[in-house]
Write a structure and sequence with these properties.
This protein has 92 residues and is mainly alpha-helical. The chain has helices at residues 15-20, 37-47, 51-66, 75-91, and strands at 7-11, 31-35. The longest helix has 17 residues, at 75-91.
């Protein structure tokens, strides 16, 4: 993308490899998530939420990308990711 974004995810392994792993240790690095706090602050004001709540949403969004969700494919994939994001926000 040739524009400012709110969150970037950098996986350390492919999503399909994550699902095939048999993790015996509770520590496992999925990858890195970078949140643009300046954009998050603007979005929080725009959406009428606290910065903390917007950062939570972006963290969840980035985590979902790391485990294989991809809204950019559109259609079903987008709806599936948005639904999971809403579910996780409700429990946070």
């Amino acid at each position: 993308m040739d524009k400012t974004t709110d969150v970037l995810s950098f996986p350390q392994t492919s999503a399909s490899a994550i699902h095939e792993l048999r993790i015996t240790n509770h520590e496992f690095a999925l990858g890195d998530i970078v949140i643009n706090l300046h954009k998050a602050k603007r979005q929080a004001e725009e959406y009428g939420v606290t910065l903390n709540k917007e950062v939570q949403r972006l963290l969840i969004h980035g985590l979902l990308h790391l485990i294989g969700y991809d809204h950019e494919r559109g259609g079903y994939s987008k709806r599936k990711m948005e639904k999971k994001e809403r579910e996780l926000l409700r429990v946070s």
